[in-house]
Design goal:
The protein is an alpha/beta fold. It has 16 helices and 10 strands. The strands form 3 sheets. A 4-stranded mixed sheet has the order 3-1-2-4. A 4-stranded mixed sheet has the order 7-6-5-8, with helices on both faces. A hairpin with a 2-residue loop joins strand 6 and strand 7.
C-alpha cells in the first residue's frame, strides 16, 4: 500500500512540474534548460528526446548534465544529451555561411554555399531557412541592402556606394532601390530630405497617438503619453524628411485609426509603407493574419513563417514594429499565454487584447444567429 501511495506522490510531483509538458511535447526549444532522468532505465535525456514518454512516477528533473550524472544516471544513447545538439551544430554551420556571405565580394550562389557546407543544394536551402528565417538569397540581398545604407553614409558619391555595396552596375541597383531603401538613393543619403511625410497627433483611450504617412502609405503609428515625445520619435526616424502637419482630410485618417483602437471589430485596411529587413517583413505579414480576438505565441509565428528556431528573432521583429495596431504585434504572447514586453507598454497590450476579446465575444452570438437564420 505504501508503495502505491509513494508512486502516486511521485507521479503527482512530476505532473505538477512546469517542465513535464515540454517532455511530453518533445520540445526542442527547452533543450539545455533542463534534463530529465528515468529511474527504470537509468538514463537521462534532453526534453526533445524522441523516445516514448516515460511514466511520470519514474521521472526526475535535473538542472544540469552534471547533476544527473552525479545522481547515478548515464546519457541516453538516442538523444545523446552529453553531446552538442544537432540543432547547435546546424546553427554554427549556418552562422559560418552567413559570415561567408557577408564578406564575399559578390553574393555566392546556392550551389557554392552547398558545396562549402558539404550538403545538397536542396538540404542547405531548407536548413538555412529553418535557422535564419530567410533563404540564402534573401539573406544576401538584405546584407547587401545594409551595406548600401552604410556606403551611402560613408562614400563621396552614390555611384561609389553602389559598387561598394556589391552591385555590378548602376542599372541593377536602381531596379531594386525603391524596395531596398524605400526612396531614391539621393533621398536616403540626405536622410529623406526629398521625402514629404504628413502626420497628425490625436487622442485615444490608450493615450496620445501619432499617425504618419508617406507617398507609399502609412509609415508610422506611435502611441505614448507625451505628444511631443511622439513627434520627436518621428523626427528621429526621418531626420531630414519634410514633416507636414495633416489637414482635415488627413485627420480623418487618424480618426479611422483611433476608431479601430476603440472598436477592433471595425477592421483597419490601410496602405502601409513597411520599412524593415526581409525577415521582419515576413514576421509582420504573419502578424497581420492573426484575427482580432486571437493570439499566437512567438514560437507559433516562427513556425508559420517556416523558421521554427527563430523565436528570438520573431520577438525582435515585433519590437522593431513602428505601426501599432496596423501590425498587431500586441496579439503575440509567450507560449504560456503570459504577456511579455510591448514597445508601447504591457498595460496597453493588455488593454488592446481585452478589448478585442470582448468585441469577439459580442460578435459571436450575432454570427451564430445569422447562421441559424440562413439555415432556416
Amino acid at each position: 500500500m505504501n508503495t502505491i501511495r509513494n508512486k502516486q506522490v511521485l507521479a503527482e510531483r512530476t505532473l505538477a512540474d512546469p517542465r513535464w509538458p515540454a517532455v511530453l511535447a518533445h520540445d526542442a526549444a527547452a533543450d539545455g534548460s533542463f534534463y530529465y532522468s528515468v529511474r527504470t532505465t537509468g538514463v537521462y535525456c534532453r526534453p526533445s528526446c524522441a523516445a516514448r514518454a516515460p511514466r511520470p512516477e519514474n521521472v526526475a528533473f535535473h538542472a544540469t548534465r552534471a547533476e544527473a550524472e552525479q545522481a547515478g544516471f548515464r546519457p541516453c544513447k538516442r538523444c545523446k544529451p552529453d553531446q552538442a545538439a544537432a540543432g547547435d551544430a546546424q546553427a554554427a554551420m549556418i552562422a559560418g555561411l552567413c559570415r561567408h556571405i557577408e564578406h564575399a565580394e559578390t553574393a555566392p550562389t546556392l550551389a557554392e554555399l552547398a558545396e562549402r557546407a558539404g550538403l545538397s543544394s536542396y538540404h542547405l536551402h531548407r536548413v538555412f531557412k529553418a535557422v535564419t528565417g530567410v533563404t540564402p538569397k534573401a539573406y544576401a540581398a538584405a546584407h547587401r541592402a545594409e551595406r548600401m545604407r552604410r556606403a551611402l553614409a560613408e562614400t563621396e558619391s552614390v555611384t561609389e556606394a553602389i559598387y561598394d555595396a556589391g552591385y555590378g552596375s548602376n542599372g541593377r541597383f536602381y531596379e531594386e532601390s525603391d524596395r531596398v531603401l524605400g526612396m531614391t538613393p539621393s533621398a536616403w543619403r540626405s536622410g529623406g530630405a526629398d521625402v514629404e511625410i504628413r502626420f497628425a497627433i490625436g487622442q485615444c483611450s490608450l493615450g496620445a497617438i501619432l499617425v504618419a504617412q508617406s507617398a507609399r502609405g502609412v509609415c508610422a503609428i506611435l502611441i505614448g503619453d507625451d505628444p511631443d515625445a511622439l513627434a520627436r520619435e518621428l523626427q528621429d526616424r526621418f531626420p531630414q524628411a519634410t514633416l507636414v502637419g495633416g489637414d482635415a482630410a488627413f485627420e480623418a485618417l487618424v480618426a479611422r485609426v483611433v476608431g479601430f483602437v476603440e472598436a477592433p471589430q471595425l477592421g483597419l485596411d490601410l496602405p502601409l509603407d513597411l520599412r524593415g529587413t526581409a525577415f521582419q517583413r515576413r514576421v509582420w505579414e504573419a502578424l497581420r493574419k492573426i484575427p482580432a480576438g486571437h493570439t499566437e505565441s512567438y514560437a507559433s509565428v516562427a513556425e508559420q513563417i517556416g523558421a521554427p528556431s527563430a523565436v528570438r528573432a520573431v520577438a525582435q521583429a515585433c519590437a522593431a514594429n513602428a505601426l501599432a495596431v496596423a501590425i498587431p504585434c500586441h496579439r503575440v504572447v509567450r507560449r504560456d499565454g503570459a504577456l511579455s514586453g510591448y514597445r508601447w507598454g504591457v498595460e496597453r497590450k493588455r488593454a488592446l487584447l481585452e478589448r478585442e476579446a470582448a468585441a469577439a465575444a459580442v460578435d459571436q452570438p450575432a454570427v451564430r444567429h445569422a447562421a441559424a437564420g440562413a439555415r432556416a
